[in-house]
Design brief:
The chain is mainly α and about 575 residues long. The chain is built from 27 helices and 7 strands. Helix 6 packs across helix 7 (about 105-115), helix 22 packs antiparallel against helix 23 and helix 22 crosses helix 24. The longest helix has 26 residues, at about 5-30. It binds adenosine-5'-triphosphate. Adenosine-5'-triphosphate binds near residues 120, 129, 167 and 359. It is found in: Nucleus.
């Protein structure tokens, strides 16, 4: 097809125009720069060197595309930004005569302000705040699948799960380092931002640049898996060049998999046959339970692809205490004038509020210990930790008990504490109480004495809220399980009345949303109050030892009902 003459002219003009623009751009970059730099040499030199570490990172990202220590970069971003900022801030201060800020001084300043999670990050497996058994499990898997790997073994897959900040990634990285294993990590690609002009360019019919540079995350992920299997990672400074043992680590799954998990399953099925390198997924539990894990890695897929699963627990309060104590003591020795040392009870409260997340605990500790914020009761020097030893044993135990029972007390920097459903149910059904003397609280008049109970140690409404579950659903679980915790038939009758009343309130569509919180109160408080066998701190009868809790039969019945209804409808059609 021949173009009309005017169009040919136009295209030639366009080429000439772009050529001229390009020439102008090159001229400005090459010839104009010396002028600028010569006028303000110091301005030009300083920022270039300050940004050096960040610049090198960027160039590595561009070339290695999601491979290598990318997560390290991501997780350490704040600290690096901090570290590049501090020396600059120092320079802003006018220097007094004789005061010299050499490299040592700025290093001191840096280490004083460095986040403690980075400063005290573990270097060996013995420094990990993770249960030994879990470390052993991961180590055994790595030995079997990476170190003693057979040449023609397919792609083995490991799934590591657990709550956020319990040390999953750190454990894996430390063990890999100790055994000389390379970690190639997938990081979700960030597409370059589109500018207004880019869109104009794309939709301009006369423009020759009409390609839409887009690749879905899933395509890039598949390519990454293929490449990571085929090629070695780029060698970074300090990397061990001798090892050919590798693992692929995926912590940040492409978002599309959450909408379409079948694609992930297809990739996994293929990878198990074609992959040549062990693949490890790290998935953090979400607040509402392990939904992500069930969605992305259902039991059938785990069995089909022989995926091993190692589940981490939250860091235990005792282990957490040990590490926080060590950190705060070291900081107090080094930098005592700038921090307030918390006492033992405050530390226990902090551990409790962080739900087993050591990262959050250390951050909260650093924030709240700084003299500027000073959350802790002020005590002189480091002695506060020691002075606590002076407390009598019984007094301390009482304090600890209160800390552990009173879920409503939010710790400093505390997280939104979520309760595992069955733990929340247990809190209602076991209904622990504290005895009160008459001074503490007035008693009911004698004619109401049968309703007299000791004070509850939990707030039922808060327990339901922390279970992250709709009140009606929680009531269902309560309904299914309360019988095992009762002894007297009269108590059962009263409890069932409360549950039925709550049911009636939540059954009316018009007022359901308004009365939702009242139905929860009626059901939970009703069940707790009805159980006279557990009405007082000194008589916690009715249950001995552990009682298994069950899923409501209602689910099964409703499923059956739906099935029957659909069958009846089918027979009509
Ligand atoms: N003794 C310790 N044990 C484990 N981690 C520690 C310890 N001291 C400090 N840390 C820091 O706590 C953080 C733990 O985070 P990590 O990424 O390992 O948790 P995670 O379980 O993978 O959670 P997420 O999925 O949210 O990343 C790291 O920054 C680590 O440096």
């Amino acid at each position: 097809m021949q173009l009309p003459e005017s169009e040919v002219y136009f295209n030639v003009l366009q080429v000439v125009y772009y050529g001229w623009e390009l020439l102008k751009f090159i001229m400005s970059k090459t010839f104009l720069r010396p002028k600028v730099s010569s006028t303000k040499v110091t301005d030009w030199v300083d920022p270039s060197f300050d940004d050096f570490s960040e610049n090198t990172d960027i160039s590595i990202t561009a070339t290695s595309l999601h491979v290598n220590n990318a997560s390290h970069r991501r997780k350490n971003v704040p600290s690096r930004l901090e570290s590049s900022r501090f020396p600059a801030r120092k320079r802003e201060k006018p220097l007094s005569s004789g005061q010299i800020y050499g490299p040592e001084n700025s290093k001191d300043y840096l280490s004083e302000n460095e986040p403690w999670v980075d400063k005290y990050k573990p270097e060996t497996q013995h420094e990990l705040a993770v249960h030994k058994k879990k470390i052993e499990e991961v180590e055994t898997w790595l030995k079997a699948q990476v170190l003693e790997r057979q040449p023609k073994q397919g792609g083995s897959v490991l799934l590591i799960t657990g709550p956020p900040g319990c040390g999953k990634t750190t454990t894996l990285k430390i063990l890999s380092k100790e055994h000389g294993i390379q970690v190639q990590e997938w990081i979700n690609p960030i597409l370059p931002d589109f500018q207004k002009d880019d869109f104009k360019e794309i939709f301009n019919s006369e423009s020759s640049f009409q390609a839409f540079p887009y690749q879905s995350q899933i395509t890039v992920f598949k390519e990454f898996l293929l490449r990571a299997t085929k090629y070695n990672k780029l060698q970074m400074l300090g990397d061990d060049l001798r090892t050919d043992k590798r693992i692929i680590l995926v912590e940040d799954l492409p978002n599309q998999f959450y909408r379409d998990s079948h694609t992930l399953h297809e990739i996994l099925r293929k990878y198990v046959h074609t992959g040549r390198c062990p693949l490890i997924f790290i998935i953090s539990d979400s607040l509402g339970g392990d939904n992500n894990q069930r969605l992305l890695f259902p039991k059938e897929i785990q069995e089909e692809c022989a995926i091993s699963n190692i589940s981490f627990n939250p860091v235990a309060p005792t282990i957490m205490m040990k590490f926080l104590n060590r950190i705060v003591t070291m900081e107090a020795n080094k930098n005592g004038r700038n921090i307030t040392v918390p006492d033992k009870t405050s530390l226990e409260l902090l551990c409790q509020g962080c739900s087993g997340d050591i990262r959050s605990a250390i951050n909260s500790l650093q924030f709240s210990s700084s003299k500027e914020n000073s959350f802790w009761p002020r005590k002189k020097g480091t002695s506060s930790l020691k002075s606590d030893a002076a407390l009598s044993k019984s007094k301390r135990r009482k304090k600890t008990d209160r800390v552990f029972e009173n879920q409503e007390v939010q710790a400093i920097g505390g997280k939104d504490v979520s309760l595992f459903l069955f733990r929340a149910l247990g809190k209602i059904l076991y209904c622990k109480r504290a005895s009160l003397t008459e001074l503490d609280s007035p008693r009911l008049p004698s004619h109401l004495s049968e309703y007299e109970r000791d004070t509850l140690l939990v707030q039922p409404e808060e327990v339901v809220e922390m279970s992250h579950m709709p009140g009606e659903l929680f009531n269902l679980y309560l309904h299914q399980n309360y019988l095992d915790f009762f002894v007297e038939v009269d108590d059962v009758m009263r409890a069932s009345e409360f549950l039925s009343f709550a049911d009636i309130l939540s059954g009316d569509w018009n007022i359901r949303s308004l009365l939702r919180q009242y139905t929860t109160s009626i059901a939970t408080r009703g069940v707790m109050h009805s159980n006279t066998a557990r009405g007082f701190a000194h008589c916690q009868g009715g249950v001995s030892g552990f009682r298994p809790l069950h899923k409501p039969q209602w689910f099964f019945i409703s499923k059956k009902l739906k099935f029957l209804l659909s069958k009846i409808l089918e027979s009509f059609l």
